[in-house]
Amino acid sequence: MNVLVTGGAGFIGSNFVYHMLNKYPDYKIICVDCLTYAGNLSTLEEALKNPNFKFYKTDICDREAIYKIYEDEKPDVVVNFAAESHVDRSIENPEIFLKTNILGTQVMMDAARKFGNIRYHQVSTDEVYGDLPLDRPDLFFTETTPIHTSSPYSSSKAGADLLVMAYYRTYGLPVTISRCSNNYGPYHFPEKLIPLMIANALNDKPLPVYGEGLNVRDWLYVEDHCKAIDLIIHKGKIGEVYNVGGHNEMANIDIVKLICKKLNKPESLITHVTDRKGHDMRYAIDPTKIHNELGWLPETKFADGIDKTIEWYLNNKTWWETIISGEYMNYYEKMYGNR
Ligand code: NAD
Ligand code: TYD
Q1: Residues with beta carbon inside 6 Å of ligand 2?
Q2: Residue 329 has what DSSP assignment?
Q3: Cα of 215 from ligand 2 centre, angstroms
Q4: How many Å lie between the centroid of ligand 1 and the Cα of residue 78?
């Protein structure tokens, strides 16, 4: 089978590339990534040595180039991870989010239609459901929870989801969508909460917690997300949405304190900074559907996943130190300098 993976030089996409190469030695994995600030070819160093792996440095919005790749590579399945993925950046500059996340999705699906009605999987997010109140722990996002977005990022992902379902109904494109909660694990770009706190703590830098830090996220180890997508592209029902989540809700402040403890750093590094605009309070996924239909369950407990993640960042300092010493520093100064 030929699997075309977009955004494979990013966090989840690269973990998915490695998952697929390891699990299916007879599959060909074709990766398309234009290497934005969040894409890193060094992440794919091992994959690039594998004869079953092929990399294209291409923008998913580049219709002509994308059509050529479909024509040449003849994918059986497409998995679209490529996106602008950081809420804070979307608040600063929404435009690129609309372009990549919505128009890029359209190009990928037009190509899927044109070259044989190819099975298409859209990697979406639980953020399309908006947020839940902290005082209603009984509430969870299900696949029928109305779309109700808060940020330009989540709105662009929701726009893409609507378009995916429209291509299913209008053109009969064989689509599936997964909506996953917050991932953590290796190759997570250090602008996101967990890797940012690990990197800053290791450098004895302030740990910037937005507001009180009471916002809750449902954390899932990235490998479990990859396994869910693997199941969906092989066994998921066409035209269906699957929620993916770990039943592992934690307040930001507790995560940051835990990281301090694990790294033997003082909690005095924690600095409460101005809250994010429109900050979603709580995300919580009900993963009953994917469990009942496809037998998926999260395998890595948070206690183990966070240890593995911290160990990975300790063992792969060059990977993240290179990132935080480059262009990323300008972003950091802009976002946190006067916060
Ligand atoms: P990431 O920012 O780490 O990686 C995104 C990748 O996409 C990068 O390699 C980047 O170079 C590439 N890319 C961006 N624009 C592109 C374009 N126009 N053409 C080609 N490549 C492009 O993101 P991530 O955290 O790995 O997220 C991957 C997907 O999973 C996204 O669609 C995101 O919405 C979704 N998701 C993420 C999470 C999470 O916790 N990180 C949770 C649920 C869903
Ligand atoms: P993030 O990793 O950006 O993921 P998302 O916003 O998509 O859930 O942020 C996770 C939570 O951590 C979110 O509530 C915002 C908060 N946060 C901080 O408190 N400080 C930070 O420096 C960052 C990046 C995030």
Answers
A1: 87, 182, 192-193, 196, 208-210, 213, 215, 217, 252, 276
A2: H
A3: 9
A4: 15
Question: Residue 125 has what DSSP assignment?
Answer: E
- What sign results for the dihedral spanned by CA atoms 244, 13, 158, 239? negative
pLDDT in tens, the chain (339 residues): 999 999 999 999 999 999 999 999 999 999 999 999 999 999 999 999 999 999 999 999 999 999 999 999 999 999 999 999 999 999 999 999 999 999 999 999 999 999 999 999 999 999 999 999 999 999 999 999 999 999 999 999 999 999 999 999 999 999 999 999 999 999 999 999 999 999 999 999 999 999 999 999 999 999 999 999 999 999 999 999 999 998 999 999 999 999 999 999 999 999 999 999 999 999 999 999 999 999 999 999 999 999 999 999 999 999 999 988 877 777 788 888 888
Binding site membership of 33 for ligand 1 (Cβ less than 6 Å) = yes
Angstrom distance (rounded) from CA 53 to CA 16: 12
Tell the burial category of 330 from Cβ atoms under 10 Å away from its Cβ (0-12, 13-18, 19+): exposed
Q: For residue 15, what are the CA distances in angstroms to 21, 266, 286?
A: 10, 32, 23
**Could you tell me the distance, in angstroms and rounded to a whole number, from the CA of residue 108 to the centre of ligand 2?**
29
CB of 100 closer than 6 A to ligand 1? yes
User: Which pair of structure tokens corresponds to residue 338?
Assistant: 């006067």
Specify the DSSP element, H or E, that contains 170: helix 152-171
CA of 183 from ligand 2 middle (Å) equals 12
The four Cα atoms 127, 195, 44, 330 give a dihedral, to 10 degrees, of 90
127 in active site: yes
Dist. CA 120–CA 238, nearest whole Å:
9
What is the pTM for the complete model shown?
Answer: 0.98
Q: Does the annotation count 95 as an active-site position?
A: no
| Residue 279, amino acid | H
Strand pairing category for 216-218 and 249-251: antiparallel
- Closest ligand (CA of 180): 1
Contact 154, 131 (CB under 8 A): no
